[in-house]
Amino acid sequence: MTEKGTKSLVWYWATGGAGVRFSHRVARCIAGSQGAQSVALSLHEGNAWIERSRAGGHPVMTIGGASGHRAAARIAVQARRRWVALQGQIAGFEPQVAVVPMNFALAWPYHLAFARRRIPLIYVVHDAAPHPGDYMRLWQSRMQHLLIRASSGVVALSDHVAQQIEAAGLLRGGRRCDVIPLSAHEVASRLAPRPSPTLPVRLLFLGRLLPYKGLTLLAQALAPLREKRGWRLTVAGDGPEADQVRALFANFPQVELKTGLLDESEVDGLIRDHDVLVCPYLEASQSGVIAEALYQGMPSVVTPVGGLPEQVGFGRAGWVAQSVSSEALTETLRGLFDAPTAIGRMSGGALDLVRVASAEDAWRRVIEGVADRQGPRPDALKTGS
User: Which of 285, 288, 289 lies closest to 161 in space, CA to CA?
Assistant: First the structure.
């Protein structure tokens, strides 16, 4: 059993994507039981949420240099300097527990800095396996498997992912995978549900433009509704599918494209200024964008894949299409456009989902579960699958 003040280090060196926000939120949730001064973060200096973490009272340590999968060669060149920096951070803060809130380059090899001091590691699994179209899928999968096997505690963000991890037999010693829902890591930014909008209903697709995100499916689903008044769609994000997305929606007067890298400040504004998030994914674990929408009381339209129905409360905070098909998605959207008053009710359901669960108690139990255990010896870590 841990006491208030057990020292935890949240360690995340990437600079983009969901991990930037999530690392800050994990630290804040752990601090709910331990106090902010007892929860430090080791971040890349390019992390856009560093000042928020400092403002929350957390000690923040940084590393500099290259970041991102396109900078793999430069990261390798800077590897020794970063190893020395991490050693110094650990020696200076003396954490009793380390948390990797999301996988990143060097997380697997550098976890040995904690293992050599017998500091237990908690790893948060976002996806049981890399998505189609992700970079270096085999490498990502292998590194994650090694991290899971080296960790004293493993946390998933949905029941769907936890079941996949347990079924794969990756956990040491017959342990279970703890589940702390992604949407439980933040408080709602509004107290009352959104009012049902006047027409047009403003749809939003937000995130990386990748094949598995289903934008072709969305274009096919909207084609029969092209002449229907009462809706607008904004597609915002960047990725390898950007050119295809421009072609897909070229003949839709209702569609606005914001293709390009989004600033962190733009994400909240886009959610605030639209009515319904649409996630036409072909496969998924859970979606960080859905969680961001829930925090603002925004309902979502989702396909029945992975943990997406779970994230919207199986219909309490959004609409779940009957199948992963353009026909099913068309009918779901048509029903939404014909009865937009349901948006206000679904907004209330979204806020209820955020309020129901608190990640603070869940993280306290996870920390307590590993803080008194020593991490595995470096020579005991097996690299077999």
Answer: 285
pTM value surpassing 0.90: no
The per-residue pLDDT for range 113-136, each reduced to its tens digit, is 999 999 999 999 999 888 777 777
Query: Where do the structural domains in the chain lie, given as residue ranges?
Result: 8-181+358-380, 201-356
> What is the share, in percent, of the chain residues with pLDDT greater than 90?
75
Cis status, amide bond into 200, omega within 30 of 0:
yes
pLDDT of residue 382: 46
- The predicted-structure confidence for 317-355, as pLDDT tens digits, reads as follows 999 999 999 999 999 999 999 999 999 999 999 999 887
Could you read off the pLDDT of 17-76 as tens digits, one per residue?
Answer: 789 999 999 999 999 999 999 999 999 999 999 999 999 999 999 999 877 767 778 888
Quick check: 335 and 161 in contact, CB under 8 A? no
3-state SS string for the chain: CCCCCCCEEEEECCCCCHHHHHHHHHHHHHHHHHCHHHEEEEEECCCCCHHHHHHCCCCEEEECCCCCHHHHHHHHHCHHHHHHHHHHHHHHHCCCEEEECCCCCCHHHHCHHHHCCCCCEEEEECCCCCCCCCCCHHHHHHHHHHHHHHCCEEEECCHHHHHHHHHCCCCHHHCCCEECCHHHHCCCCCCCCCCCCCCCEEEEEECCCCHHHCHHHHHHHHHHHCCCCCEEEEEEECCCCHHHHHHHCCCCCCEEEEECCCCHHHHHHHHHCCCEEEECCCCCCCCHHHHHHHHCCCCEEECCCCCHHHHCCCCCCEEECCCCCHHHHHHHHHHHHHCCCHHHHHHHHHHHHHHHCCHHHHHHHHHHHHHCCCCCCHHHCCCCC
Domain at 201-356, CATH from 3.40.50.2000, 1.10.10.10, 3.40.640.10, 1.25.40.70: 3.40.50.2000
pLDDT at 195 over 80: yes
* CATH architecture entry for 8-181+358-380: 3-Layer(aba) Sandwich (3.40)
Is 365 in contact with 371 (CB distance < 8 Å)? no
73: number of CA atoms within 13 Å, CB side?
0
